[in-house]
Amino acid sequence: MITYEWRGAFEDPEVNALHAEGFGHPVLDIGWHEQLHGHSLGWVCARDEDGALVGFVNVAWDGGVHAFVLDTVVAGRCRRRGVGAGLVARAAQGARDAHCEWLHVDFDDEHRGFYFDACGFRETAAGLIAL
After folding, report:
1. Which of 22, 55, 85, 110 has a beta carbon 3.0–4.6 Å from 73's, enabling a disulfide?
2. Could you tell me whether strands 66-74 and 53-61 are parallel, antiparallel, or unpaired per DSSP bridges?
3. Cβ distance 28 to 59 under 8 Å?
């Protein structure tokens, strides 16, 4: 059984390890606590029955009505079981509870099915500048 917690407790090393696994890079020493508490509306932690962090999503915001899904990641052993969709659903509820009106996401094309089909996002026109 997987549990989801809005603004759930976590340790930086466990998020760093999960992020590295999910995004295919070496484990970095990112200060997630400082970053999230300074810039995010919230985040969602997914934990398995043993308490291990198996999923994470960050919800950044503009301080008003727009929230943004970032860094959605699920441990390899838990993928294709609805954990990612559960993370995003809990993130949407957290943003809704904070009176946000819009939840945005951008993603690589390979994740279209996940965000549109599993999570219920709809396609919109948007722009991007690579910096």
Report:
1. 22
2. antiparallel
3. no
Tokens read off for 48? 């398995």
What are 90's two structure tokens? 């809990």
**Mean pLDDT to the nearest integer, 65-73:** 96
Instruction: Give the closest residue to 44 by CA, choosing from 82, 71, 26.
Output: 71
Q: Tokens 């659903």 map to which residue?
A: 89
Indicate if the pLDDT at residue 130 is higher than 90.
no
Asked if 73 contacts 80 with a C-beta cutoff of 8 angstroms, the reply is no
* Residue 112 dihedral angles phi and psi, to the nearest 5°: -55, -50
pTM: 0.94
